[in-house]
Amino acid sequence: MRSTCFLLIFFIARLCAAQEYNDITLHGAAFLSVDAYSSSSEDTLWKPRLPALSGRGILRANLSLYNVIEAPFELYVSTAGSGFQQPFNQFGISPRYDWLTVHAGYFSTKNSDLTFGDVRILGGGIEINSADFHLSALYGIGRQARLPDFASQFAGEYKRTMSALRIGYGDENDWNVHVNVVQALDNQNTLPKTLTPFPTENLATPISFGLPFSDFLHVRGEIGASVFSNNTTAPEISDTTFKFPTFLFTPRYSTQIDGGGKLSFIIFPSKNWAVKLDAQWIGPGYISQGYVQLQNDIFETVIAPSVRLYDNKLLLRSSFGMRYNNLRNNRLAVTRRMVGSFLASAQISPALSVDAQYSNYGIRSSHINDTLRQQNIFQMISLSPRWTFSAFGANQSVGLSYSFQDVDDKNLFTSVSTLSTTHLGSIIHTLTIESTLNFSTSAFYTSIVTPALTTKVMNVSETLSDIYYDGKLSVALTGGYSFVQTFGQDNQFIGRITASYQIMSKGTLVLTVNSNNYDYAQAAAGNASFREFQASLLYQLTF
User: Fold this and answer.
1) What are phi and psi of 188, to 5 degrees?
2) Number of Cβ within a 10 Å radius of residue 121
3) CA-to-CA distance for 43 and 524, rounded, in angstroms?
4) What angle do CA 458, 462, 467 make, to 5 degrees?
């Protein structure tokens, strides 16, 4: 860590010395606004959600030092108080210079699919990516200690240090091979020795590769092993029984070892069609703590063909895959998942295009206990045509969309709460007159049917907008109605006026007036129907 900091300081100093002029910049935006609000309701339970009059001043800016360090910050003042804040609580810098990248502080990166990728660490690292040589070395804290909280049934977490190494040769898009190593160790002294989880240790060492056998066949993959100790307080295995480099990992009686691999074949004999074949096998004992979300105990195969026809006017794409678990038959049941999808996108004419999609996701678990047996199917089909045309001296466009979703649960005990059928439809029509006057009409409808109840939602709105004074003044007027219907029908009416005027090149004055009227069907049950009116005047300056 100390050597990384010295290297970082030297790197920044050399880069600053190479600048021909001072390259410290500040850019962002400032906002000043005044808001007026009023509301009313016949229900005595109603409480206004905003103060009657309020004001705010906000400065959001980013300080850039020599194009190496980016430091965002925010200043704000309002009638409710003032202060200073940063939009982060983790600070890190990752300066880049040609083939070299240096990390310090908090940072995240990816080494490979089976080692390191979704963990953000506090520490340092270096990445070298030349034409053929690649090196990545990282070290830091992958997880801070958290004390137990028995009230929320949280047992606590140990502080975890992590290191990762990736070294390889070859072009990423050509022949290449990489050795990947990730090591993680919990510090058992960071939590009290009470009812806490066991500290763990992990080492994963896969090899990833790319093999372009020909112009129409590429193979990519990764294969390796992982050793994992479920409890580092367990006795060590003697050297005579099992020899292993202790500086990498200490074998114990709580240690497990397993393997995993991924393989992908990409076949593209022509520019118009291609087939991708993916397979992965990850053993139930394969663990990489550099990938918290990595799933194990799975075997999965996926085939995904795609084809373009009629001079790329028709695109057909599909995929079909199967996933199994319980690879070593050490669980009570096997779960089988099936995923399939199909997409067709057609440009019928320059003015008319259509997208159609179908997807199917099914899961089945043949558990010996009827109440735990699982089988459900999710299906979705959608159709989305789009049409542009000219009529009545105006350019117009119409977009339609309809989708149907169905969840079919065949478990007798859970189907009542999970069965559902959903219809979603929308239409959007735009009309442009004299290049600046625009009308936009939209309607959305949703219907969700379950064994217990049916919910319907509908929204209709119209927006009229125009531009004046050579584009400096923009005005938009919106009106809409919507309802939500379950046991009764809630109704809502909205109205909005927005006007923005550009002052010089970087300043904009925006006036917004909103009206919101909401009537609850169940107002007598404590839902307060209300009327709201809000006006806001905002000045925005960018720099």
Assistant:
1) -70, -10
2) 26
3) 9
4) 150
Tell me the two tokens of residue 413: 């005990």
321-326: average pLDDT: 90
Q: How far apart are CA 478 and CA 459, in angstroms?
A: 13
CA-CA distances (angstroms) from residue 352 to 183, 239, 260, 383, 522?
55, 73, 47, 13, 45
CB burial of 292-322 (b: ≥16 within 10 Å; e: otherwise) equals eebebbbebebebebebeeeeeebebebebe
| β-strand partners of 365 | 335, 374
pLDDT band at 3 (very low <50, low <70, confident <90, very high): very low
For every residue of 159-173, DSSP letters joined together read EEEEEEEEEEEE-TT
DSSP 380-425: EEEEEEEEEEEETTEEEEEEEEEEEEEEEE--TTTHHHH-EEEEEE
Radius of gyration of the chain (CA): 30
Residue labelled with tokens 């995904």: 304
- Across 387-402, b (16+ Cβ under 10 Å) vs e yields beeeeeeeebeebebe
Name which of 287, 324, 269 is nearest 302 in CA terms.
324
Centre a 10 Å sphere on the Cβ of residue 203 and count the other Cβ atoms it contains.
Answer: 24
- Please state, in angstroms and rounded to a whole number, the distance separating the CA atoms of residues 136 and 114: 15
Tokens for 425?
């439809």
Mean pLDDT across 137-144 = 93
Contact 123, 91 (CB under 8 A): no
Domain borders along the chain are: 90-254
Q: What is the pLDDT of residues 346-372, one digit of tens each?
A: 999 999 999 999 999 887 776 655 555
Phi, psi of 525 (to 5 degrees): -90, 10
Rounded distance between C-alpha atoms, residue 77 and residue 83, angstroms: 6
Region 201-227: mean pLDDT is 93
Nearest Cα residue to 28 out of 67, 2, 54, 58 = 58
Give the H or E element holding residue 8. Answer: helix 2-17
Token duo for residue 96: 């880049």
Cα separation, 370 vs 520, whole angstroms: 43
Please give the torsion angle defined by the CA atoms of residues 310, 316, 317 and 320, in that order, rounded to the nearest 10 degrees.
-130
Lowest mean pLDDT among 58-67, 161-170, 255-264, 488-497: 58-67
Question: Tokens 């510090």 label which residue?
Answer: 187
DSSP reduced 3-state for 10: helix
Integer CA distances (angstroms), 537 to 280, 467, 479, 504, in order: 57, 19, 20, 18
The owner of tokens 């291609």 is: 274
